[in-house]
Amino acid sequence: MSQNRDGFTSTFGVLVATLGSAVGLGNIWKFPYLTGTNGGASFLVVYLLATLLVALPVMIAEIMLGRASRSNAVSAFEKLAPKNQQFWSIIGYMGLVSAILILAFYTGVAGWVFAYIFKSLMGSINSTDPATAKAAFGDLVSNPTQALFWQWVVLIWAGSIIMMGVSKGIEAVAKKLMPLLFLLLVLLCIRSLTLPGAMEGVKFLFAPDFSKITAPVVLTAVGLAFFKLSIGMGTMLTYGSYFRQEQNIPATATRVMLADLSVSMLAGLAIFPAVFAFGFEPSAGPSLVFMTIPAVFASMPFGNVFMALFFVLAAIAATGAILSILEVPVAMLSERFNFSRKKATLVSVGIIGLFGVPAALSSSLTADWTLFGLNTFDLFDYISSNILLPLGGILISLFVGWVYGLPQLKQQLSNEGKLNNGLLINALFILVRYVTPIIITVIMLKGLGLI
Ligand code: PHE
């Protein structure tokens, strides 16, 4: 089967598609709002540490497992684990659950982005006044018909793209539009940083107050690091399975991590100065970006046009991420159950749509469906980001560190000795064998209040 799997067609294509998965609403929406609710700069510091020490090693390990097995997230572990240790494929099944939970709320947020494209063109969100911005956002999310409609627009859009196949669909979309998003973010930053009172926002983002760091905050930072780099659930494994044999995996992962980080920083610098300049609440939560970004554009000439363009690009970034998550169940269904790509897509989109309904309605009809004080939307996010992805990270690290082993790791990551990166591989091996699993386990147990 492995000979006729579709794959990425160039080294640059691999980088862009992987980046297309990593950069998404995690950068533009989740990173700013979590930084805002968790105290700003101190959260940023913990997040950076989590990315470097924990997420990057897992990312490299996960991509490597994909390329070594050339299979989907379940079959990969069946192939690479010894016959009597087939239980490792649980990682793949957990990824399937994460994919469904994440997409159930993520497509809802992407729906808000799609809706904002139209709202910006109509001028209905063009305001620097916090109360007006809040009302406009509230109208959208608390209207069940609108929330569901836009979520389904997203599901149908992403489903259609994925049916066209890996290289043609994903690569083509991602390649053309990422640089434009970057440019527009730079423009936003410049406007935001030159607003009167902008410095307060810069301070919020860069002057840490370490008293704000608690165990749950650390767990949230780790969860965000995993979420943003699309790791711990088989997405990067699945993408790794389409990597070319000569691709330098550690270098590619590091580049993706750095680029992903720059997009987040730009988003932070576009948002927080404006938050303070216009009097928004940094801890507004999921609505933060949807209120602040329009305000920055509203204080710019031709703001409406730029704003529409921004939301178009955000929609495209979200699409890249959605496609990569959707690829997990689609690859699994088509390779394991011999579903056609079309059938696999329809089944996956159907299931996600089902879970998506209560998530999309959690500011209206299902607002009082709560568990542990979280509504469906927040619960799906919490379970996936703060539990399943880190748990996936622990298991992937343990698998590579204790089962897959150093000799094979060396062979894979040095591209059979063609790359001279032995030291780096040794360091990575120690990290995934001991450091990452222990750190994540402690953070999870403490963050969940279990120890
Ligand atoms: N990394 C994506 C983002 O930042 C989200 C994502 C999570 C994608 C998990 C794939 C897997 O938006």
UniProtKB/TrEMBL annotation:
> Which family is annotated?
Belongs to the sodium:neurotransmitter symporter (SNF) (TC 2.A.22) family.
**Membrane topology summary:** Multi-pass membrane protein
NCBIfam families for the chain: Na_transp (NF037979)
Q: What is this protein called?
A: Transporter
Q: Which UniProt keywords apply?
A: Membrane, Symport, Transmembrane, Transmembrane helix, Transport
Chief subcellular location: membrane
Where is the chain membrane-spanning?
12-29, 41-66, 87-118, 147-165, 177-193, 213-237, 258-280, 300-326, 346-367, 387-407, 419-445
List the GO terms this entry assigns under cellular component, sorted alphabetically. Answer: membrane
Natural source organism:
Chitinibacter bivalviorum
Localization recorded for this chain is:
Membrane
One annotated GO molecular function is:
symporter activity
Return the PANTHER family for the record. TRANSPORTER
Any one Pfam family here would be SNF
